[in-house]
Amino acid sequence: NDICVGAEIVSEDMNILVVTEKGYGKKTDMNEYRQTKRGSKGVKTLNITDKNGDIIGFKSTTEEKDLMIITNNGMIIRLSVSSISKMGRVTQGVRLINLKDENLVSSISVVEHEELEENLDVE
Predict the structure, then answer these.
(1) Which among 45, 72, 73, 92 is placed 20 to 30 Å from 37, CA to CA?
(2) Residues with Cβ < 8 Å from 28, sequence gap 6 or more?
(3) Domain range holding 76?
(4) 63 in a domain, yes or no?
(5) Distance between CA 28 and CA 36 in Å, rounded?
(6) What is the number of other CB atoms lying within 10 angstroms of the CB of residue 81?
(7) What is the pTM of this model?
(8) Would you give the DSSP letter of residue 101?
(9) Would you give per-residue pLDDT tens digits along the chain (123 residues)?
(10) Contact 68, 84 (CB under 8 A)
């Protein structure tokens, strides 16, 4: 019952960022993934459990980017890719977002890093 959640073009200096529906994620060095040929069974990237849920998406990225996580109730958080722990290929990851009740991650996106202004004047 496996499904394809996406495809990415990568280079050796990039990381693979994986996020699950229950808010867990991890960053893994691209070099931990072996190349496969046509007809292979693929390469396992995450231990899927009831605790972390199914994979919602993955992105190839560098440390200089930000990750946006969007939930099914419209909550959006933005965090620096460099703040996410780098882990081995077959681990479950760490919690990236705290979800309550029936909230689930519905989408992720990698965007350019943006420094937040701390002293915003709101009128």
Answers:
(1) 92
(2) 15, 16, 18, 45, 86, 87, 88, 89
(3) 15-112
(4) yes
(5) 18
(6) 19
(7) 0.84
(8) T
(9) 777 888 888 888 899 999 999 999 999 999 888 888 888 888 888 888 899 999 999 999 999 999 999 999 999 999 999 999 899 888 888 999 999 988 999 999 999 988 766 655 555
(10) no
